[in-house]
Design a protein that fits this description.
alpha/beta; 6-stranded mixed sheet; 6 strands
Length: 126
C-alpha cells in the first residue's frame, strides 16, 4: 500500500507542541496511539501543512526496540497519513509494546482505523 508522490509532512519537535496535541482527540489501536489536534489560525500563520510527531516511552522496550518502533511508525505515516492528513492539524503517534512486533500490514491497518476514529469523533477527547 505504498503511496508515492505525497509531500513530506512537517515534524513536531517541541515539547509544547506534543503537550498541546495530547489535549486533542485520542484514538487507540493495538499497534499505536494516535493523537489529533486542529491548530488555531493564529498558530498556523502561513504554514497550514499538517505536522506529525513520534514518541516511544521506555515501556515499549530498550533503545533498540524503541528506535525500531519509531522507524516503523515513520514508514506507516509515509504510506498512510501523508495522503490522508488534513491541513492545519497536528498528529502524534505513540508507539506501544506491540508496535515493533506487529506485521507491517497490521500496523498500516491500525493507523488507518485510528485515523478514521479520530476524524469521526469516536476517539476519546483528552
Amino acid at each position: 500500500m505504498r503511496t508515492t508522490g505525497a509531500p513530506a509532512l512537517s515534524r513536531l519537535l517541541s515539547r509544547a507542541d506534543f503537550l498541546r496535541a495530547a489535549r486533542g482527540v485520542k484514538a487507540v489501536a493495538p499497534g499505536l496511539v494516535l493523537q489529533v489536534r486542529r491548530r488555531s489560525p493564529d498558530e498556523t500563520g502561513d504554514d497550514t501543512r499538517p505536522r506529525v510527531g513520534f514518541t516511544a516511552s521506555r515501556k515499549v522496550g530498550n533503545a533498540v526496540v524503541r528506535n525500531r518502533a519509531r522507524r516503523r511508525l515513520r514508514s506507516a505515516v509515509a504510506d498512510v497519513l501523508s495522503a490522508r492528513a488534513e491541513a492545519g492539524f497536528d498528529y502524534v503517534l505513540i508507539a506501544r509494546a506491540a508496535t515493533a512486533e506487529r506485521t507491517y500490514d497490521e500496523l498500516l491497518a491500525d493507523l488507518g482505523k485510528a485515523l478514521d476514529r479520530a476524524r469521526s469523533g469516536k476517539g476519546r477527547r483528552s
